[in-house]
Amino acid sequence: MSTAIPILIFILILGIVVFIHELGHYLMARRAGVFVEEFALGMGPKLFGFRGKPMKEEIRTLESEQESDEEYEPRRTLYSLRLFPIGGFCKMHGADESIPDDPTALNSKTIPQRALVMAGGSIFNFVMAFLLFFILVLLDGYLVPQVQSIIPDTPAYHAGLEAGDRITHLDGRRVALFEDFITQLEFSGGQPMDVRFVRDGERHNVTIAPMRVRDNWQFGFFMVRYVGLLESTVQEGQRRVGPWGTFTTSAEMILFNMRMPFTLLARLISGGNMPEGAGVMGPIGMAGEVTVIYQQVIERGIVPTLLTMLFFTALLNAALGIMNLLPIPALDGAKLIFLGIEAVRRKPVSPEREGLVHLVGFVALMLLAVFIAYRDITRLLG
Prior knowledge:
By secondary structure, the protein is α+β, with helices and mostly antiparallel strands. It has helices spanning 4-31, 56-67, 111-140, 155-159, 178-188, 243-270, 283-297, 302-324, 332-345, 351-381, and strands at 36-51, 78-92, 142-150, 166-170, 173-174, 193-199, 202-208, 211-213, 216-218, 221-227, 239-240.
C-alpha cells in the first residue's frame, strides 16, 4: 500500500502535466480557428468520450447550408479518456495532410498562427510551472546564497566569510538561487572554486575548496531563509517573503530548470563532474523517485508532502515544456523548424517528406524510451 499511493500520485501528476500541455495546443488551435478532431487524455483504447459544441466556423457553415436547403452535419470535437494514463494528444484537422480550401485546417493558417499552435503546449507548461513555483515560494519560502552564520573550522570560516555576505558567482557563473549554488558545488567535485561575494556593497573574491558532508559538497555556512506564509513567526536571521522577491525567485526557478537539461548534457559530453543521481530518466524511473521522496516526506505530515508533490509537478511542467521544443523529429521543436524553413523558402516542405522525417524521429524516440525504461527497471531492481 505504501508503494501504490505514490505511484498513483505520480500517475495523477503526469496526467495533469500532459493535460496542461495538450490544453495549450487545443486552446491555441481554437483561437486560430483550427478544428480539433479529438482531444484525448491518455493513450491506447478509448474508455469513453463525448462530442462538444460546433465551432463558430461550423455554425456559420451550417447556417449558410440551411439557407441553401442543403443538409449539413457540423463537425464536433471528440473529448476522450483512454486506457493508459501516460500521454495524450490533440488531433488537429489538416495537421498531417494538405486540405485545400478548408479554413478550419491547420495548414490553411499563416506561419505565425501555426507556430503559436505548435508552441502552445510548451507555453502552457511554462506558465503552469511558474504559477506552481510562485505558490510554493509564497507559502514555503526559499533560501538564498547569503551567509546567515558560519560553522567554525570549515572552508567558509577559514576563507574569512562573514554573516551577511551574499555569494553572487561560483567559478564565474552567476548563482541567484539555492539550487544554483548547490549544483555548482556538485559540479566542482571538491576542487577549489573562485567565489565572488558582496559585502557592504563591495565585491570581493576568494578561493574556497568545498568539504564533503555526507553525500554533498559544502562550504560550511547556513544560508539566509525567506519565510513563507505557512509560518507565522520569523526567527532571528530570517526574513519574510515579499511580492517582488516571490516573483523574481519563481522566474529564476523556472529558468534554472529550463537550462539545467542542457547544462547536464554538456557536462556529460565533456566528461565533467555530475551531481549525485543526475541522468536521463523515464516515467518508470520518475515513479521510483516519487515513491522514495513520498516515503521520506510523508513522515513529516500532509502539508510537506503536498508541497513536495507540487514542486515535482512544477519540475515536470518545465521539463516537458523544454523537451518538446527541442529540434527532434516528431516533437514540437522540429515542427517549428519546418515552419522556419517554409518561411525562408516561401513554400512548405512536402507533407510526405516532413511526415517521413517525423516518422523516423518517432521510431527513434520509441526505441530510446524502451532503452530508458529498461535501464530504469534494472536500476530500481538493483
